[in-house]
Amino acid sequence: MSQSLRLFKKQFLERRLSSLMPATPISLSTVSLSPGDTVEQAIRLLQANKNGSVLVCDADGKLCGIFTERDVVTRLSEDFDSFVGESIEKVMTPEPIRVKHFSSVSRALFLMSEHGFRHLPIEDPSGVPTGVLSSKDLVDYLHTHIAKRLLEGDDLGEDYCPNQVENFMGSSIACLKPSPVVIAAADASVRSVMKLMRENNVGCIPIGIGEKINGIFTERDYVLKVLLQGPEAEEQTIGNVMTADPHTLLLSNSVSMAFTSLSGGGFRHLPIVDGMEKLVGIVSVKDMLKAVLRGVIDELQSQHA
Predict the structure, then answer these.
(1) Would you give the distance in Å from CA 190 to the centre of its chain?
(2) pLDDT band at 10 (very low <50, low <70, confident <90, very high)
(3) Per-residue pLDDT, 160
(4) Which fold is adopted by the domain 167-293?
(5) Rounded Cα distance, 219 and 119, in Å
(6) CA dist., res. 242 & res. 91, Å (int)
């Protein structure tokens, strides 16, 4: 077996999700609610933990639902005040797909990429949640085990032949084909920008003038800075609550550099610009994980050809 194949198997097929989780098991009281708890309680938990999801567990501690920042945008943001007092079971995603703690990294990568999940509950053999794997966890893993090594130029020997995932990591961001996005002006209202987010089914809106941006507004910004701040919060200008001067990369930068930026910055969206600093598009964690999955599948197919 080649060194490249051994490394690939270790990174994706043999690595267990338990190794990506904190050594100390989660306390369900800090990340979960009961079905009868309110949307307001769920939002406050999202704001306190800043982790993007809340588990919903029944009286036996078994998982019965999940509520995420994405649910806030797609289901509640158009008329949030009418949902504040509702029970979380009315707006949660019921019986979400989950995995056991002994599942492989490749299994989680497949589920999150194919279904567009950003959060994947992990449970023990009895069905009790032990953690939540986020897309950020996978980005950090891929940065540490592949992207960082490629950027630092680790010498694996003259005979080393990169696998398909490593080839992708070494490619330019242009291979992801960032698609054009809608840009909102800094004096637009939060309400109008959220409408754009829903209509375009995206998790962020760049803020700027013409093709140059000076800010970005994301689902997390909405949850942390706007919700539960009163009805006037929706009418303020987006410039008051956007993330100013977001980190950007060039189309010619490598995918490895994008993973490093996402991991180090803790964000999920990267504005991509050209040499004149004009916005070309947005690359999301979802886009990148899908591309990594294609690399994993291509590598497996090549080994069985």
Answers:
(1) 22
(2) confident
(3) 59
(4) CBS-domain (3.10.580)
(5) 14
(6) 26
Residue closest to 188 by CA, chosen among 211, 212, 217: 217
The answer to whether the beta carbons of residues 138 and 296 sit under 8 Å apart is no
For 272-302, how does the pLDDT look when each residue is reduced to its tens digit (9 = 90+)? 999 899 999 999 998 889 888 888 888 777 7
Across the beta sheet with 204-209, what order do the strands follow? Answer: 204-209, 212-218, 243-244
**Closest alpha carbon to 116 in 142, 96, 94:** 96
Tell me the pLDDT band of 24, cut-offs 50, 70 and 90. low
Sheet with 119-123, strands from edge to edge, namely 99-100, 119-123, 129-134
CATH of domain 3-134: 3.10.580.10
Separation CA 249–CA 270 (nearest Å): 7
